[in-house]
Amino acid sequence: MASLDASRQAAFAKFVLPEVEVLYRVALSMTAQPADAEDLVQDTLLRAYRAIDRFDGAHPRAWLLTILRNAEVNRHRRRRPDLLDDPDVHLEHDTGGGPFDMVPPTPEELVVGREFDEVVDAAFGALPVKHRQVVRLIDIDGLTYAEAAVLLGVPEGTVMSRLHRARKRIRDRLAAAGLAPKQGGGGR
Amino acid sequence: MMGRRLRQMRDMRECLHVGPQLQSYLDGECDPATVRRVAAHLEYCRKCGLELAAYREIKRALATHEQPADDAVARLRAFGEHLAGAGPEAEL
Predict the structure, then answer these.
(1) Looking at chain B, which residue has its C-alpha nearest residue A108?
(2) Nearest chain A residue (CA) to B74
(3) Domain termination site, one of A11, A40, A75
(4) Are residues A142 and A94 in the same domain?
(5) Could you tell me if A185 and A105 are in contact, meaning their C-beta atoms sit under 8 angstroms apart?
(6) Nearest to A179 by CA among B23, B65, B61
C-alpha cells in the first residue's frame, strides 16, 4: 500500500506538477473570476491525484485538460445563457474583405505600437464568448488546437474555425483603423 | 516558357490555396507538405506575406494580453507539491 502511494506521488510529481501554471491559465479562460479559477485547478489536482494510478503516462496535458473540463462541468451544471448561443453564426456574415482602398503598407509599416495593441484588445473584448475563449486558449494560454478541442469537448475543426474567424474579425478591425491592409487587394 | 498571364493565374490559384492556411501555418499546425507549400508561396507573394505579418502581430499582441497572478500559481503549485509529498491524507 505504501509503495502504491509512493508510485502515485512520484507519477503526480512527474506528470501533473509541471502543468500547474498552464492549468491555471486555462482555468482563468474557463471561469470569470480568478478565485473560481483557483478553486477549479485545486479540484482538478485532487481529481488527478486520485486518478493518477490509472493514467498511462501519454499526453499528460490532454489528460489533465479532460479532468479540468469535467470538473468545470460539474461546477456549473446549469450553463449560462450566453454560452448557449451558437457562436459560429455570429461572425458568419461579417467576412470583411472588399477591395484595397488604401496603399498597402510594407511589413515594416504594420505599426506595432500602443494603438495596434489597443485595437487588438478592443476587438478581442468584442468577440462572442466562445470565440474569445478559443483565442485565449490558443494565443494566451498556449494550447494546441487538439488540446483546446479536448478541453472544450468539440472537434478540432471547430476550434480552428472559431479561432480563425475570431482573428479575422480582429484583423478586420485593424484594417478599419488603418493598421493592417484590407483583405482582397494588393499584389505580389 | 510560361507566359506572364499564365503565371499570374497560377499565382492567384496558389493565393486561394495558401490564404486559408496562413493562420494554421503561423500556429505550427500544418502538416509538413503544407508548410513547404506555404513557405514557397511566401517567397514571392507580397499580399500573403502582409497577411501573415498582420496575423503574427495580432498573435503577439494577444500573447502579452494577460499574465496569471504569480501568487495564485505559487499557491496552486504548493498545493500540488503538498499532494505529491503528503499522499492521501492531503485530500482531507
Answers:
(1) B53
(2) A21
(3) A75
(4) yes
(5) no
(6) B61
Q: Do B88 and A5 touch (CB under 8 A)?
A: yes
Instruction: Flag whether residue A20 sits within 8 Å of chain B, measured between CB atoms.
Output: yes
Q: Tell me if A186 is assigned to some domain.
A: no
Check whether residue A92 and residue A65 sit in a common domain.
Answer: no
Domain boundary among A75, A105, A138: A75
Residue A10 lies in a domain: yes
Please check whether residue A21 touches B, CB under 8 A: yes
Which parts of chain B have pLDDT scores under 70? 1-2, 66-68, 87-92
Residue A172: in which H helix or E strand, if any? helix A156-176
> d(Cα B15, Cα A72) in Å, to the nearest integer?
42
pLDDT class for A4, splitting at 50, 70, 90? low
Q: Is residue A32 part of a domain?
A: yes
Provide the residue range defining the domain that includes A13: 2-75
Look at residues A137, A119, A116, A33 and name the one whose alpha carbon lies nearest to residue A76. Answer: A33
Long-range contacts of B35-39 (CB under 8 A, 24+ apart): none
pLDDT tens digits, A79-88: 444 444 444 5
**How close A127 comes to chain B (CA, Å)?**
13
- Predicted local confidence at residue A13, as pLDDT: 92
- The three grid cell numbers given for residue A174, joined into one nine-digit string: 485593424
| pLDDT score for A90 | 45
Residue A142 has pLDDT above 70, yes or no: yes
Residues A58 and A95 in one domain: no
> What's the complex ipTM?
0.79
A111 in a structural domain: yes
In one letter, which amino acid is A152? L
What pLDDT score was predicted for residue A164?
96
Q: Give pLDDT tens digits for A54-79.
A: 998 888 999 999 999 989 888 876 44
Minimum CA–CA partner of B16 in chain A: A184
**CB proximity A100 to B under 8 Å:** no
